[in-house]
């Protein structure tokens, strides 16, 4: 049982239904789009592990959908199905980023085996055993996620954009008994207003104009797994009522349907908005807020994780180099200084993007501050006749001092606990405290 989410793009109703049934029997989560337009809509809110797409669609072609998605979100393992295979087409698709293609009629068992191999490779390459293990600032959050994973209580993840809320949700899912079932991520802010109900709860045939067949929603695709509702604060009020019913009674109905269906799964929500303020403004239901606010975790912004920045930078540089098929460059001390001084308004996501660009376009052997910040958003250290207070070294010292003060405050002045939180020895911490005039604290 893999639990990986596959976006199936196939306009043939018979083949599509057969493929979905077999994939679900093999343990995959499946979201089925019957046209290029529906595929684009799903890709705006879903993050599939694999795309399995027909090349010819009634309103376009799978290749165009793939190129558009790759341009915005990066490569996703993609296999095309076509009845018109030839060498020229295969070369073009692979050059466009596709992993492979199969010619209809194809061996379904062989296709399933390839999909399972892709999933296993992705898990080995991309999923660390514990993304919080080497982070003093995040270790406590990782432990709380493990404890929460032992229950089915709703979890609410709070934090600025790019702080790793989906990483935390996936870690929670992987740490619990539902890990072998699908993890279905949904961006509530990207759902089209007129289709949001259908996409989340599904619809019956004829429930609205264009509903030529029944459709399974994200709730149904979650079966046994975890539904991750990102940007929950953007969920329309009418759908908040339906979600509340799911949380209270574990039941729901498809749009246009009369049958009550049972929900078997857990719900994890996330937002970067102030839900209490939204409740006060009557833009978010208070009863739903109480329901999802059972276990709440606040993910700190990267600017408050000074002790993690060097390690994260090295991790992302190594990952970017691996994707580029080269050895990781050495990180110049100037680059680390610049990273420590930078405010990281985009948090982890910004760091990954900056590192990917720096590794792709920079020097093969050394990564510098100029590679990381070509836009000049952080001043680079340059030789000066007289030292001034706004040098990067001064900024780094100020950030380090603030981190030590914060650690001491969190540990009630315990030198041993503060050193452990910061990931340094007690001797090193004591030396730095004396250097920054904190020896009496």
TrEMBL record:
It comes from the Bacteria. InterPro entries: AAA+_ATPase, AAA_lid_NorR, CheY-like_superfamily, Homeodomain-like_sf, HTH_Fis, P-loop_NTPase, Sig_transdc_resp-reg_receiver, Sigma_54_int. The keyword Nucleotide-binding applies. Residues 131-360 form the Sigma-54 factor interaction domain. One of its GO terms (biological process) is regulation of DNA-templated transcription. The modification 4-aspartylphosphate is found at residue 54. The keyword Transit peptide does not apply. PROSITE patterns: RESPONSE_REGULATORY (PS50110), SIGMA54_INTERACT_4 (PS50045). GO terms for molecular function: ATP binding; sequence-specific DNA binding. This is Sigma-54-dependent Fis family transcriptional regulator. It comes from Georhizobium profundi.
